[in-house]
C-alpha cells in the first residue's frame, strides 16, 4: 500500500508539473500570436508605403519622358 501511495504521489507531482508546463506553453503561444499579428500589420503598412513610393517614381518618370518627347518634337 505504501508503494502505491508513493507511486500516486509521484504521478500527481508529474501531472502538476505537466500542467505548469502546458500553462507556460499556452502563454508563449499567446505572445507569439500577438507578435505575429503585429508583424503582419507592420508588413502591410510597409508594403503600402513602398507601393506609393514606387507609384510616385513611375509618375515622375512618365512626366519626365513626356517632357523630353515634347522638347524633341
Automatic annotation (TrEMBL):
Main location: membrane
GO CC terms in record: endomembrane system; membrane
Chain ranges passing through the membrane: 55-72
Compartmental location: Endomembrane system
Keyword Membrane: yes
Domain V-SNARE coiled-coil homology span(s) in chain numbering: 1-53
Topology relative to the membrane: Single-pass type IV membrane protein
GO biological processes: vesicle-mediated transport
UniProt entry keywords in alphabetical sequence: Coiled coil, Membrane, Transmembrane, Transmembrane helix
Pfam families per the UniProt record, alphabetical: Synaptobrevin
Superkingdom per UniProt: Eukaryota
PROSITE patterns: SYNAPTOBREVIN (PS00417), V_SNARE (PS50892)
InterPro entries assigned to the protein according to its UniProt record, in alphabetical order: Synaptobrevin-like, Synaptobrevin/VAMP, V_SNARE_CC
Family per similarity comment: Belongs to the synaptobrevin family.
Protein name listed in UniProt: VAMP1 protein
Organism: Oreotrochilus melanogaster
